[in-house]
Amino acid sequence: MTRVVISGTGLFRPPHVISNAELVAAYNRYAELQNEQHAAAIAAGERQAMVPSSVEFIEKASGIKQRYVLEKDGPLDPTRMYPRFAPRADDELSLMAEIAVDAAQQALAAAGKTGADVDMVICAASNMQRAYPAMAIEIQQAIGAGGFGFDMNVACSSATFGLEQAVNAVKSGSAKCVLMVNPEITSAHIEWRDRDCHFIFGDVCTAVVVEAADTATAAQQWDVLGTRLATKFSNAIRNNFGFMNSCEDGDPDARDKKFRQEGRRVFKEVVPMAAAHIEAHLTALGHESTDVRRYWLHQANLGMNQLVLKKLVNREVGADIAPLILDEYANTASAGSIIAFHEHSADLASGDLGVICSFGAGYSIGSVVVRKR
Ligand code: CO8
User: Fold this and answer.
1) What's domain 222-372's superfamily in CATH?
2) Residue bearing the CA closest to ligand 1, atom 20
3) Per residue in 162-216, pLDDT tens?
4) DSSP 8-state assignment for residue 268
5) Fewer CB within 10 Å, N side or C side of the chain?
6) What pTM value is reported for the model?
């Protein structure tokens, strides 16, 4: 059986930062303007006044301190409250492909490869910029890759599900060197006018190179010992945006056309699922959860990750066992666990065991068990 390795990762970090203080100031000004505009209806009891957001709540409830975004003036303008992206002509590189190419070039450089070595491109993310042609095919052309490419979406688990497709393609011989990218432009599909979720997400793109061990030349390589995926239908995280919206004669800007969730329910339901999933995967590979040197977990909520780890190893663990990146990046959907791996894996020693794990909408859970070569 072909041994498969992760031989490079890359990270595109957008140029703009929005701090919690800036975010809350913009939201609270928006709420004030709304309350002024609807003062009569509020006084008549026909409408509820909007309540201010708070930095203290955001940091305590989520652990998020700031987020990177591709455009910050739009979301911080209380009369707009969403980003402003200039449309691009069909013959220009699309924004999603642009950030993917940036992360891809870094991952390829780390792997000691060029685009010409790649024969499969997977674009795995929680939203695609357009229906077709596939983003992956545009990225394939932009980096000069051969072979084929396709898009896939499993929301926050897109990257781990993408890694399984990459690993299986190399094992089966349908590809030799796979580039898997996760361009997450979350700022375009969160609802910045909703106090319950306006703080949750940030923009970013990650990239991973997966290849056969016998072609890998990178200084840092990770044997993929196994991948495991699971899904269970839930409406607790949902976005009804889609190509049929304009035929449904409803409001295309209605609240259900952007991200929404029952956050507390997600927290309660997903923590036990994720812990049991990781434990079963490790057991199937002949390992125990305490054998793992590092867990690179999905980055949605600090408390959630602490609870998953407590269930797994039966004690409180620090950042050395389970690094946190959501304080700086916020929730970056599928890219979160890959950012943690990218930024916090170089210090591990040969033979160290690690787990990359995502969990989110679907529900979906994906785990990738790796060992440093
Ligand atoms: N400021 C001040 N107070 C607030 C705010 C705010 N911004 N928001 C809510 N409150 C108040 C509420 O009104 C409530 O008040 P009261 O007690 O008087 O009713 C109180 O705070 C508590 O509210 P919650 O119960 O909602 O707060 P929680 O403690 O549960 O924290 C969290 C909310 C942080 C959202 C938390 O529930 C959480 O993180 N849950 C896990 C969520 C999760 O993991 N989701 C995964 C989503 S990501 C994913 O799957 C990918 C989807 C695709 C990507 C989409 C990209 C855009």
Assistant:
1) Thiolase/Chalcone synthase (3.40.47.10)
2) 57
3) 999 999 999 999 999 999 999 999 999 999 999 999 999 999 999 999 999 999 9
4) H
5) N
6) 0.97
